[in-house]
Amino acid sequence: xxxxxxxxxxxxxxxxxxxxxxxxxxxxxxxxxxxxxxxxxxxxxxxxxxxxxxxxxxxxxxxxxxxxxxxxxxxxxxxxxxxxxxxxxxxxxxxxxxxxxxxxxxxxxxxxxxxxxxxxxxxxxxxxxxxxxxxxxxxxxxxxxxxxxxxxxxxxxxxxxxxxxxxxxxxxxxxxxxxxxxxxxxxxxxxxxxxxxxxxxxxxxxxxxxxxxxxxxxxxxxxxxxxxxxxxxxxxxxxxxxxxxxxxxxxxxxxxxxxxxxxxxxxxxxxxxxxxxxxxxxxxxxxxxxxxxxxxxxxxxxxxxxxxxxxxxxxxxxxxxxxxxxxxxxxxxxxxxxxxxxxxxxxxxxxxxxxxxxxxxxxxxxxxxxxxxxxxxxxxxxxxxxxxxxxxxxxxxxxxxxxxxxxxxxxxxxxxxxxxxxxxxxxxxxxxxxxxxxxxxxxxxxxxxxxxxxxxxxxxxxxxxxxxxxxxxxxxxxxxxxxxxxxxxxxxxxxxxxxxxxxxxxxxxxxxxxxxxxxxxxxxxxx
Length: 527
Ligand code: GDP
Fold this sequence. Notes:
The chain is an alpha+beta fold and 527 residues long. The chain is 28% helix and 30% strand.
């Protein structure tokens, strides 16, 4: 029998972040393969396509070649239970990614060795920094002619403002890529793409830089490597666990995901270096993962993949204790107690009913719209986890119905899609308009498609004169004054919170200057 502490401490919960095309899907596939979760390479990609086959709106995703939804994959590796959270790569769905990052304890950043640090990587790193999420870096595609490793590390340090501590070091690149040297273990793994991917495309592993076998295999390149390693050891940071855990330093690995080369070292690092489930903040106190009592928060709501079933899945990160099937838990916001009999996990192969889950794990709770984004569940205590953000949208459109008799369905559909986080919904105080807000414009296409497909509502969206939104906090008296002066700019969001809908930056600035006691915020915590 394992103890609660042992079970929790063998959890590793992380997400892979990258600019599209850097190799996230490929790497995911290989990691799952190591976990025995998939038998054949290619399944993740196939699954990506097939799991949506029943759902037409997902056609949109396939057509555009992007992933709208995130998913969760759990697999065992060595003595650990790994939870890998997938995030959509397209920036229009960045809110989803941000929220997913609130549910992990660490992240793996994939960098394309040819392209270096790209725009999405910078944004994602900014999000990780909000919580000082520890990051491991995998520099991918060493089988291509890329940039020099020193150059890449310099760029990461300069642009992303994070120290690099190389753990492996590449020997050559592109056609001349021979393998990697492991700076900590003092081993050299030789790359051979003709070896099967199951073997990690490795022909041989030898111990020691001074091993004569190195000269046999590398010839004059052996001395170059020795010199390189000496320089690297002298000039770069050595691994510092505290710096890594506080998000200030990233250990760096080199490899080629498509060849499965260097991937095992990365996964071993997740086990050996990455944090066990971390404590999480609530409005009142820190919750330690080892507490006996179960608690967790919902970081994502997803419509059922089969649109014929109107149910939704709430993804809950277990923050403390142990969950077991049939457990009665309190939904803190409404004060209700419910028995969760049908929680699911998304095993890499299949969904299955979960009998138990521990802090660090993710469970999916089917519901009919009764669970909202950001909600906390406990075994009774009135806790509310903090830090699950909604971001001020940058694009706004007004929903117009083709058939006015469908107003109820439209309202219901938009309300539900807003609760899922697919879009944000605003209602100006002075009109009956339904205004949609999005962080990326593709979100509108998805909402229009889903309204038609799931709610049978034909809606079109047209532009409206809103430039940005802010959530406002102030006294009722100040709110009344603000509404008197700016009747067209105040309203509420989908959850009923007060918002200011600014027609321009200048309009917003003036309102802020005139009402110094009103707090205008760009993010809203969902709970
Ligand atoms: P994602 O958009 O980040 O999920 O990237 P994918 O995993 O879909 O990979 C993008 C492209 O890069 C695909 O064509 C992959 O086959 C390719 N790719 C991934 N890893 C490697 C690698 O190590 N070497 C090379 N040459 N190509 C790779």
